[in-house]
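Budget justification, computational time. The allocation requested in the original proposal was used primarily to generate structure tokens for proteins on the priority list. As evidence of use, we reproduce two of the resulting records. The first is shown immediately below.
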Amino acid sequence: MKRSFVFIMLALMALAGNAQVNAKRLKPYLSTTTYCVPGMTPFVENAIAIDNRSAVYKEFEPGKFKATVEIQTIFRQEDKICAFSKIALDSPVVTDTTKLDGAFIDQQRFSLPNGEYKMEISIKDMNGGEALPVEAMNLEVNYPDDAPAISDILLFDSYAKAEKQTACSKSGFDFLPRVYPFYGANEDKLHFYAEVYNSNQLYEEGKFLVNYYIETAESSNRMQNYYFNKRFDVNKVNVLLNTIDISELPSGNYYLVVEMRDRSNELICSKSWFFQRSNPDVAFDMEDLAGVNVANTFVGNITEIDTLRKYIRYLDPLCTELERNYCTNLVKTEDTKTMQQFLFNFWSKRSPMNPKQGFEDYLAAVRRVNMSFGTTAFPGYRSDRGYVFLKYGQPDKIMEVPDEPAARPYEIWHYYQVANQRDKKFVFMAPDRSTNDYQLIHSNMVGEINNPRWPMEIYQFVYGQGYDQGVDQTEYERGWGSHAVELYNNPR
């Protein structure tokens, strides 16, 4: 099957912020959402964007060039293949390959009954020959027929009334999804779409309330002035199609949350979606600290300025971007009182029932990572493994592989659930076997470093394969005992 899609000018942080992308290093981005119409089979929608600058363009007519990538998608339950697709996706035709920008996109829909699946995606550049390692992830589809539920949240750039229904049309509209959930400083609108199911299971008639709001990803604090609600008549399906003005939203990592409540304001169900915001012109609000009284609190006795600076530096993995920037400047001052106020305010927000206990538990975690991951160059909390441990907690599984033949030492961490994200993995690699400095080289966690070529970094010296063969090298030869990809896709 052959497809060609309209050119998309996506404002992606990774596209705009990266250095020049080599034309042979394919760079894809994936967004997966699930939906269901009551009484029908649920479905999964995949949107895959390919960075135009990362694909190989081939001349097919004099002065006309295009890229083609092959995308294969498989959904499995154990050894059973439940859905399969293999398509060739064409880029827009261009006449000048030196001025590539933006991305081209593929959207596909798969009907899948409720259940747990392993989704495997393979992507190959048909012109350049590069095949990315298979990306596998677990996916749950769960839409009961007899209970209220909310679809995944679709972030989109634009939408239009569907002139002709396509496989991915929803509620009579066609949407241009925002595959990479990043909003730059020049963007001030967040558009989103969600479906609410089976409100008629609560009441035969009347109205119910849907709230939607933005909260910080690090602390789940609701952002002031970003809490909204809307009343709906009960129905089998209700559509929430809205825009939020984010012009004053500070830089940081956030969740957009949609929740359904009954007439007594009791939570029935909710769904959330991660996004990032860059807005450097919005500064930290000092009013949050001005009225904080630290007398008779756990920070009141912390008066040594070097100790306060150390404790504030420890907070880096938990800070929002705005807090992090503020801390960087705060520790350069001699302002003991403001440091105490910031420290108490920080833990009062993260652990409102018992700020002192939250602070002490975190210090214990810092001591643990300092002992486990520290090197002669820096303490453990500043290492990549320490950062991930402090930010996301202890992994459910850690696969340590210090001496695999022909591989650099590596570790794979697996989290079953982190906040609202499932099946998240982190790959760390040490440059050699004599150091404890394991560096993060890949993760499927939204907002963290994502490098589809991470196996190459681990196995780049197999059979003499090194950087000397050039930056265009994308394949690695798997020798005896090479298990990294298998461990990543099937943690044990």
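The second record produced under the same allocation is shown here.
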Amino acid sequence: MNITVYGAASENIKNEYKEACFSLGKTLARRGHTIIFGGGKNGLMGAVARGAESENGKIIGIAPKFFKPDGVLFENCTEFIYTDDMRSRKELLEKKADAIIVLPGGIGTYDELFEVFTLNSLKQINKPIAVFDAQGYYQPLKLMLDYTVKEGFLAKEKMDCLFISNNDKEIIEYIEKESR
């Protein structure tokens, strides 16, 4: 299965996040899944890719051409696709996915999460979305989304589009089950 993984590119994060994402990458590769990601060598993107690489997993990086000279890309991808811009990158990451895993991240990751969450809830795509709540990172967001439902701004059944867990095995089991 092709699994798009969104996550932080920053190196200024705790090692616990990187270790959890490295482990996730290893497990995904062991189970025969292809990792599709934004191509970065740093942060949680890099950690997942290195985890998959350590198990000889298939890794597809997708990044805009302007990242190429910056030295920020993971060089050991099985395949690398260059796009003209960030919008094309996002479109390909979503299109190539059978399922999506969202790691902790910043505004770029939030943007990717909310875009696929919106598309799923509007039935424009039908892909399982799992949010990897490593170190409880997404608990404040979960509270906000629960509050959004409580206040009537989001229908409760729309929340069924997201599976949130801090357990990488549960994340993988969920996407495998929901992708059938």
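A brief technical remark on that second record: The CA atoms of residues 23 and 61 lie 19 Å apart.
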